[in-house]
Amino acid sequence: MPQEQYTHNRNNMQSSEGPQVYKVGIYGWRKRCLYFFVLLLMILILVNLAMTIWILKVMNFTIDGMGNLRITEKGLRLEGDSEFLQPLYAKEIQSRPGNPLYFKSARNVTVNILNDQTKVLTQLITGPKAVEAYGKKFEVKTVDGKLLFSADDNEVVVGAERLRVLGAEGTVFPKSIETPNVRAEPFKELRLESPTRSLVMEAPRGVEINAEAGNMEATCRTELRLESKDGEIQLDAAKIKLPRLPRGSYSPTGTRQKVFEICVCSNGRLFLSQAGSGSTCQINTSVCL
């Protein structure tokens, strides 16, 4: 068929059928599903926006922070009670000027000081039963820096001018104690007592026992020894009484006078002997045995 005839026949067919229209888009159930998903997405966006606004309102979010937390130039500031469920790391924790700082816990509060290798150097534990501190040295000082109390492996130092013990049973020292002065409070007695063992007081330059407004008593179970290696022992008083010294024998036929002389045995024991015209200590040497 010639080309001209083919073209003529095609044009006649198109003119006889009319113009053809091709539809572009989504129609039917696909269109309804699309509109439904768009509407659902809008609802979710509105709900999400409302929830975000509600959370911001409840948590009190502002430009400076959220809730009781405020962001300042010096750091973070917490107002009111705060609870931390995980470890808190901070360079410095301080309260507001004029207000106290409280640490509350249902069990205990532990403060650890670590080194570069995260090894514990110092530890403070405050629990319901005790307060424990672990470290090489423990010190208590005044505001001026004066040492009040110090403790380490070698010694315990009390730097206060006066150490007061208010217990009814006093203070118990299982070993020795070194101090320049031991005295009681005014108008109260001072007792140095060793219930089961001996009590020894030594000093390189002497021991002085002074009772200015009362009596002084020294009581023991077996022996009371006053010893001075290079010096002397002085008993300076208006009256010196030895009421329980043993008495030597006396002659029943002689005059029984109430005058006695003090005799000293070679072992240092004292006894009384009835005085006579001469010394009667020689006739009572049996007392020294």
TrEMBL record:
- Give its localization: Cell membrane, Sarcolemma; Cytoplasm, Cytoskeleton
Q: Please provide the Gene Ontology terms (biological process) for this protein.
A: cardiac muscle tissue development; heart contraction
Mainly localized where? membrane
Q: Name one GO cellular component term.
A: sarcoglycan complex
Going by the UniProt record, its keywords in alphabetical order are:
Cell membrane, Cytoplasm, Cytoskeleton, Disulfide bond, Glycoprotein, Membrane, Signal-anchor, Transmembrane, Transmembrane helix
**UniProt cross-references to Pfam families, sorted A to Z:** Sarcoglycan_1
Its membrane topology: Single-pass type II membrane protein
The transmembrane residues are 33-56
Q: Which family does it belong to?
A: Belongs to the sarcoglycan beta/delta/gamma/zeta family.
Q: What is this protein called?
A: Sarcoglycan delta
Taxonomic classification, please?
A: Eukaryota, Metazoa, Chordata, Craniata, Vertebrata
Gene name of the encoded protein: SGCD
